[in-house]
Amino acid sequence: MKIALLGYGKMGKTIEKIAIQRGHTIVIKTNDEDGYDITQADVAIDFSVPNAAFFNIIKCFKHGVPVISGTTGWLDNFKKAKALCEEENGAFIYASNFSLGVNIFFELNKQLAKMMSKIESYKVSLEEIHHTQKLDAPSGTAITLAESIISEHDSYSDWSLLSKKENTIPISAKRLDDVSGTHAVSYTSNTDTITIEHEAHSREGFALGAVIAAEWLQDKTGVYTMKDVLNIG
Ligand SMILES: NC(=O)C1=CN([C@@H]2O[C@H](COP(=O)(O)OP(=O)(O)OC[C@H]3O[C@@H](n4cnc5c(N)ncnc54)[C@H](O)[C@@H]3O)[C@@H](O)[C@H]2O)C=CC1
Ligand SMILES: O=C(O)C1=N[C@H](C(=O)O)C[C@H](O)C1
């Protein structure tokens, strides 16, 4: 596959390594919004910055190039991107986290929230830890976890950074040197705490998931998720 890397930072470089190992060719690597011909690529992988992702994605739809996006912090425009994809008969996968481990963790989180919905004595909280260069907080993965809890648990209707309000899931976002990404969901009662946690050891799991998603999407049209790609849950 000929791959365009829209965003050639920490993730773009890791994806390049994994894509080449899997026999693909990188035909575009860019940190700019233009100055390249996207139609050279069979598929585009966008890991850029929050204010560039939407533009990069819709450019791919307009030129008939399937696109994977892992960029976080741009989801105010997600519904618009979905609608444009359908209008242009494009192909699109967005995931706040492409790693297999986190996608399994997403399913565990849903199951646990469903169980906990029946037990009033436990209160939920989320913690995410990332490297200090991260632009957005809370992380996209923490938002996905919180939204799943809200959909499964009767006591919660919103999330917020460090909220103490009833019905609102508090999220703590910490920034420490060199942390690839750690997410923990905790349920605390007066007597104990249950925690499920995912810790990424490097960026390779995210990158491998993104390349697998690109391989899967290549000949399709429509809007999909990692659940479709991995066939889990
Ligand atoms: N969904 C997932 O599995 C994961 C998502 N991410 C997200 O991916 C994004 C990128 O992460 P990193 O590579 O760590 O950041 P980074 O800061 O190392 O790389 C981003 C790159 O985008 C470039 N850029 C700026 N404007 C651009 C434009 N208009 N078009 C294309 N590129 C442009 C920057 O120059 C930079 O090189 C972040 O939003 C992060 O949260 C990161 C890891 C995993
Ligand atoms: O910026 C990062 O590094 C990461 N961002 C994603 C997020 O916001 O959830 C995924 C992963 O945790 C790494």
UniProtKB/TrEMBL annotation:
Ranges of residues in domain Dihydrodipicolinate reductase C-terminal: 101-230
Binding site for NADP(+): 22
Family matches, as InterPro entries: DapB_C (IPR022663), DapB_N (IPR000846), DHDPR_bac (IPR023940), NAD(P)-bd_dom_sf (IPR036291)
MF terms in GO: 4-hydroxy-tetrahydrodipicolinate reductase
Start and end residues of each Dihydrodipicolinate reductase N-terminal domain: 1-98
Source organism of the structure: Bizionia hallyeonensis
Residues involved in NAD(+) binding: 70-72, 95-98
Keywords tagged on the record: Amino-acid biosynthesis, Cytoplasm, Diaminopimelate biosynthesis, Lysine biosynthesis, NAD, NADP, Oxidoreductase
Name recorded for this polypeptide: 4-hydroxy-tetrahydrodipicolinate reductase
Family: Belongs to the DapB family.
Function: Catalyzes the conversion of 4-hydroxy-tetrahydrodipicolinate (HTPA) to tetrahydrodipicolinate.
Catalytic residues in the record: 130 (proton donor/acceptor), 134 (proton donor)
Quaternary structure annotation from Swiss-Prot or TrEMBL: Homotetramer.
Enzyme nomenclature, EC number: 1.17.1.8
Subcellular compartments: Cytoplasm
